[in-house]
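Title: Prediction job returns without error message
Component: structure pipeline
Severity: low
Priority: P3
Assignee: unassigned

Description:
Job completed but the reporter wants confirmation the result is attached to the right record. Sequence as submitted:
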Amino acid sequence: MGASSVTQNSVRRGFVDVADGQIHYRYAGNSNASPLVMIHASPGSSKSLEPLIRAFAPTRRVIAPDTMGNGDSVADAMPAQPEISYFAERALEAIQCLGIETFDLCGTHTGGSIAAEIAIREPNRVQHLAIDGIGLYPDDLQRELLERYAPTMKPDLHGTHITWVWHFVRDTYLFWPWYRTDAAHRRFLGLPSPQALHDKVLDVLKAITTYHLSYRAAFRFDKRSRFPLIRVPTLALCAADDMLTQWHDEFAALIPGAVKAVVPGIAADPAKTAEIIERFLSEGFH
């Protein structure tokens, strides 16, 4: 056989057993370097973080689990209404199984809420925390999002779930919330590449019966009461084109001593985004 083409920046994949199933994760970098755990947004999987994983890989050991019920992380039986604490516990089990004692932690959107809960529970293990894009929804919008944003889905013999997922994933790039398709709710991102859209659709289809659970947990998560309990150095960041940027100042102010930063975003410039985050993780300030 020829020489292996795997390099330090190659993104590899693995599974670990947890209490009620298996966690799938992506990893890259130097196994002897300082660990960085990254938790993805909903919907989809850690595949969405691959550009950022590669950007960190030259100086880090990067581990990015799929949140339970998303991507290839599967529970034998998930609770009917899991809370963010459930997703944090499963992620912590996976981290422990990989032999990681202390680590830096970065979470995006739903992953940000999960990362915050991990940091609150394990302040002696999380050395630095970066939270990217958090929504602090007023009560009426929270109720609407819980009702409409992530409906329960299941496969049917006509394949309507397949076309639904395609339009759901595509429309999240065009509108916010995705189901309000008028000019007032238009986003100005443009669509990702066909391959990126295809990959995300496949991830949601894999998790068609459970994709909604992490979404709804994040919408219910009481960030206003939990974020003030964070006691680790924290970078509160948001991408410049994020639909949640309207809450950036407010969520940053909830976290004691948090440093605030605006980043280009994973899609726009993963290298620059990683540089800003790494500066904080390494030096404790921005």
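Comment from assignee: result matches the submitted record. The first strand starts at residue 12 and ends at 18.
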